[in-house]
Amino acid sequence: MTAPRQRKGVRLADAADEQLAQEKDAKPCGEIRPDHTGGKLWNILSVTVGGIVAVCLGLLTSVYIATLHENDLWFSNIKEVEREISFRTECGLYYSYYKQMVQAASIHQGLHGLVYDNKTESVRTINILERMNVYQEVFLSILYRILPIQQYLEPVYFYIYTLFGLQAVYVIALYVTSWLLSGTWLSGLLAAFWYITNRVDTTRVEFTIPLRENWALPFFAVQIAAITYLLRTHLQPAHERWTLLAVFIATFFFSLTWQFNQFMMLIQALVLFILDCLDMLPTAKVTWLYIIQVSGLLLVCVLQFFNSMILGSLLISFNASVLIARTIQKNLKKGSLLSRLGKLLLHVLFVSCLTLLVNKLIKKILNLESDEHIFKFLKAKFGLGATRDFDANLYLCEEAFGLLPLNTFSRLSDTLLFYVYIFVLFPMTLTAAIVAFQNLRYSIGSTKVEKSTEKKENCTIALKPGTAYNLIHTVLFGCLALSTMRMKYLWTSHMCVFASFGLCSTEVWGLILKCVRLYTSQRISVIRYCLPVIMLLYISYKFWPGIMDELSELREFYDPDTVELMNWIKSNTPSTAVFAGSMQLLAGVKLCTGRILTNHPHYEDKNLRERTKQIYQIYAKRSPEDVYRILQSFGTDYVILEDSICYERRHSRGCRLRDLLDIANGHIMDGLGENEPDLKPSLYPRFCEEIKRNLPSYTVHFTRVFQNKTFHVYRLAKHK
Question: Which of 59, 94, 274, 642 has the fewest C-beta atoms lying within 10 Å of its C-beta?
């Protein structure tokens, strides 16, 4: 195929024509024609070697993270109670259900205990399988019971090794995605190296093992790899069907294992929506992906006993609205540039309004309020109004939900990852903008049909659908990470993929070399293979000694106060005792002692949020009678007070837990500083401080039964 010579400037069509010529000599899916025997053998050898390298890197990553975990805690040597305490906050809560299932008399009895649970929230029976995403713990416990490994492997090791094994899946998926985008497994090797050397910013699995995202993100990475393959041109029907199945399975497991799946997939749906509106993805495949998202989420909804929070998710409302709007507005991709821009604007407004309307209607019908705290948090975070809402402020004051710290970029720059990422992102964004403009300008129905069709085809080849998808994906998830630090792990891992792809990409280098008029195919080949090798050598030289030092550094778990507390609870309280305290500590109480809780860290329930706010009055300025009445209403037998909360210094004034409670109660905060004018002094001193003075007004309701440097446990009096 020939194209008119362009004397000045660079046309996307030039790069497109060369890629088209390369693809003409290849089968769909990138296979060499059978008559090219040498090329076919080389292709098979390359795929085999690349696959082996991927698996080896995945396994090495798992071993590396498992070794770091062992070296940090001396996990194999510490007592069982210390192992369980190491599963901090909500991690301990999730692991407790695995432990409960393993220790149950039978699988049926274990499942019954989860479906009719009366230990997680006192004076309430809740369905754990409906409320929480713990099917992975259920599956793993059943697997542990039926496999003949009990005498060789403790339950806790079976659990943590499974999570570390999923890291292998994660790395392999990142490797494959980069390989699919660039066409060389050298790109995948570089992506894996960057993932490992930037471990501080790409994963936190070694110290938050049971966290839901550590289960979910490997499946999310598999889904992205499958979508990247699905969006390849000239995909055979059979391959397309199998790939759609892979996308569905990965989407289902991702949705099943993380309660925040709907928000991540909403961003993914926005990626598809943007690209579909700009005519950069095949509409039929986009439709299938919308359907897969909704069907996967609805299947999870069924497994979670028709969890109303899933039915009321924005994702379902958005995807349904897009499909409805597309049916009504059938001529979106026809007309002149101004006509298409007008139709596009109306389409976006129509979809947005319909989404909000459908979502509002669903929530009204289901009387759904489980996720209202998230929207209150977002409203306050983005300056759409100040709030005194306790739940929203609790999130706002946590560092994990704040802006991404600037030192993150300095760490990512040490491995050159961030520099390469920006270097790749700029030309790809520019290319995408030009392709989008060309697609809107030369559309079906314009006067020069033949010319427009040819130009659209050229632009599509210049920016392949898979590349376009990963570009918008990394941009939107980058915005999410910049606004909320906890979500950076969704971005930084994909950053490794995108940067390594760009360094090995004929698309990127072809565009750059044409801009500086140095383009030759030989020069591109040299650059796309030599630069990654140089980068790999640099990373190995600079970071290998540090990795070796890290692996040789030995530490040990040490938290004697919490161990003493858990041992005292097990030895000195009845198994039916009800404990109140902070969410984080009570998760450990449930795991280590099996006692009944008043509240816990899984915050996606309105009644639980209100209950937690009431329990936390133990750190507010309330009378002993008020606190006693509140605790009694939840059937509390013992309350645990923590000095680290009562005298908190980790947060600044206004963000300490006691400050949030004072503001919510309308009281002036402690310490020097300004207060809002309508806040009033409290009539009572702070409960957690005053109770330690053993005044008669307190001892009549509360008796101290345990004390160490960190914790104070009080038994509630049983008044008639």
Answer: 59
Residue spans of the chain under pLDDT 70: 1-36, 385-386, 443-462, 720
Would you kindly state where each structural domain of the chain is located, as residue ranges? Answer: 162-444+461-552, 560-716
The model carries a pTM of: 0.90
Size of the chain in residues: 720
The DSSP letter of residue 400 is G
Supply the DSSP string of 673-685, one letter for each residue.
S---TT-B--SS-
The confidence score (pLDDT) of residue 2 equals 38
CATH of domain 560-716: 3.40.50
Helices within 367-464 (DSSP H only): 372-381, 390-396, 407-414, 417-441, 449-462
Return the structure tokens found at 251.
């989407």
**Angle, CA 68 vertex, CA 63 and CA 70 arms, to 5°:** 95
Are β-strands 578-580 and 638-642 bridged in parallel, bridged antiparallel, or unpaired? parallel
The answer to whether the beta carbons of residues 87 and 591 sit under 8 Å apart is yes
Give residue 512's pLDDT.
86
- Asked if residue 271 lies in contact with residue 318, where contact means CB atoms within 8 angstroms, the answer is no
Contact 623, 635 (CB under 8 A): no
Q: 442-476: b or e for each residue (b if 16 or more CB lie within 10 Å)? A: bbeebeeeeebeebbebbbbbbbbbbbbbbbbbbb
pLDDT number for residue 443: 63
